[in-house]
Amino acid sequence: MAYQLKRSDMSIDAAMRRIIGEQVEAALTDLTGDNPDRPELVHSARKHCKQLRALIRLVRPGLSNYAEANARLRALALPLAPLRDADVMIETCDTLARDCSELDRAAAATVRRGLVRNRKALAAIVDPAARLSGFAEDVAALRDEAANWHVDPASFDVVTQGAVRTYRRARKAMKHAAVGGNAAAFHEWRKSVKYHWYHTRLLAPIWPDEMAVHVEAARDLGELLGHHHDLAVLDHVLAAHAGEFGGEEAVMAVRAALATRSEATAKRALREGRLLLSESPDALGERWGRYWSIWRGERAPVDRPRAA
Fold first, then answer.
1. 12-298: which CATH topology?
2. Which of 20, 272, 274, 281 could form a disulfide bond with 168, CB atoms 3.0-4.6 angstroms apart?
3. CA neighbours within 13 Å on the CB side: how many for 135?
């Protein structure tokens, strides 16, 4: 199912509960399978939690229990984070070995073997099957809890405020990343851009053709910043535990390639970010509000009954 608002939604309140139900069902469906330790299962579970957190962030101005709901959703995915991080580090090492011609293949292979050993050791400790089973139980319970969540007022003004708030944070975080240039600043920027991307997907129907361009640009920037974060995580682990990955020579070779790739990724992200986030927050909110009014013009506003 599409992760977006629908014209058939009678209110923002109804849309929120519908999407939560759809995401819960999708998460439970994705968890079926014979092998509970497949990386894509953990990734899928965490993805659905992020989409739910983005949804409630969009309606945050009208959701009185936002803090509680956000903490609940964050707690759902937290036990899966170590498994996902271990999988991503292996994927990042593979990407680096494939794309960086200057990287010594023997050094990359040595580091990869250490990453795989650590992933197997982690799986023996945390039991992926048990964690995913616990996630399934918790997310099913969430569906019942969310039936009592309400957005008030259930109008597009709430959505505008939520979307603009996240967009403004993304612009501010970009400025910090451009000035500081450190991994932590880029990670904060990444989080707000990902939320903005989810918001553009939720709102895509208000003008599909125009919004599709924005959705694609936000997705691409989020992926760039995600890659930058993955490079930083791998570099941090290698720097702190060089002995687990073949020693200083192999680790330094990989870290040099990570630094080069990270610098290039950061520069590209800043170029694309300045384009995506060039509009002022207020102008964005006004423009999307006009799109919404036109889109809903075929029926009465969602927060008022149809006139007799």
1. CHAD domain (1.40.20)
2. 281
3. 33
Residue 62 tokens read as: 């009208």
Q: Which two tokens stand for residue 64?
A: 């009185």
pLDDT single digits (tens) 7-30: 898 889 999 999 999 999 999 988
Other residues' Cβ atoms within 10 Å of the Cβ of residue 82? 16
Q: Could you tell me where the DSSP H helices lie in 100-204?
A: 105-126, 128-146, 156-180, 183-202
* CB contact at 8 A, 12 and 156: yes
Domain ranges of the chain: 12-298
* Res. 249: pLDDT tops 50: yes
CB atoms within 10 A of CB 242: 18
Please tell me the chain's helix, strand, coil percentages from 3-state DSSP, rounded to the nearest 5. Answer: 80, 0, 20
Q: Which of 180, 248, 206 is nearest to 5 (CA)?
A: 206
Give, as one character, the DSSP assignment of residue 62: G
56 pLDDT higher than 70: yes
